[in-house]
Amino acid sequence: MARPRRLRQSAWSRDLVAENRLHVSDLIWPIFVHDRDIAREPIRSLQGVDRLSITEAVKEAKEARDLGIKVLALFPHLDERLRTVDAKAAIDPNGLIPTVCRAIKSEVPDIGLLVDVALDPYTDHGHDGLLVDGKIVNDATVEMLIQQTLVQVEGGADIVAPSDMMDGRIGAIRNALEATGHHDTLIMSYAAKYASAFYGPYRDAIGVKALKGDKKTYQMDSANSDEAVREVAIDISEGADMVMVKPGLPYLDIVQRVSETFKVPTFVYQVSGEYAMIKAAVEKGFMDHDRAALETLLAFKRAGASGILTYFAKHVAQLLRN
Ligand code: PBG
User: Fold this and answer.
1) Pathway membership of this protein (predicted)?
2) Interface ipTM above 0.95
């Protein structure tokens, strides 16, 4: 008689036949840095996540490296006065992110640094591109993204991750990198990025007060799946080394489809709202924190993800070590 329960009867037999496993090298840890004189500043909507000073970011980078985390993703929280209509702080060679990259690389050279390429932390309206007459203009934004990429790479970033969803930006950035001798810089494109309610806490984290309108003219419609395949195909053809699907859990079907279709390294971002949802449920006593975190991360592996950007990264790295 077929008794599938035979294999489930003990921990050792379950481990023996486990089809997927979560490993610390699957984890990319997003951190928020600020330019204020405060070591750590809690983020109200992201329990357990703080905005860090540069010194504190370097300390965390060391701890992450010692835990076996391979890559940090850096996000800036800028002073209000640096957010302008032309987003010029994004292309400042001595801006926050290039400075953080230099600080981390000088003390922790063996951790990978991933930087976001998009203008939302730097614009006064919170959109990812330049806003002209009520529209996000594509090609002028791409020119800014190129400059933003170069200042971040010159600061020491290893992976650039355009999250802006402008058309043609991967090709333009790849050409600019080649032309300036940065042949080895990796591009992880936010290729299938959906216009999502789940980014709410992130906007609080980077200090976007009131976004005017929504991002639906550049981020994808959650109704679509074929479109994700087209977006990924374009970004690979333009020179992306790795692609990303975002958000995570509500788009597991897209993670699976992209990884099966393209056989390129496919990453997934368990975004702020997914993290906040688990934290809130745990706070109410509705579920177990560690089991919920590990189960969601394993689901991404099962769907075919090569790795996961997650705010749980440091905690889970500690769990995996024990
Ligand atoms: C923006 C960007 C966003 C996130 C990463 N880069 C938000 C957005 O597009 O509005 C979201 C990350 C998260 O929610 O955890 N360029």
Assistant:
1) Porphyrin-containing compound metabolism; protoporphyrin-IX biosynthesis; coproporphyrinogen-III from 5-aminolevulinate: step 1/4
2) yes
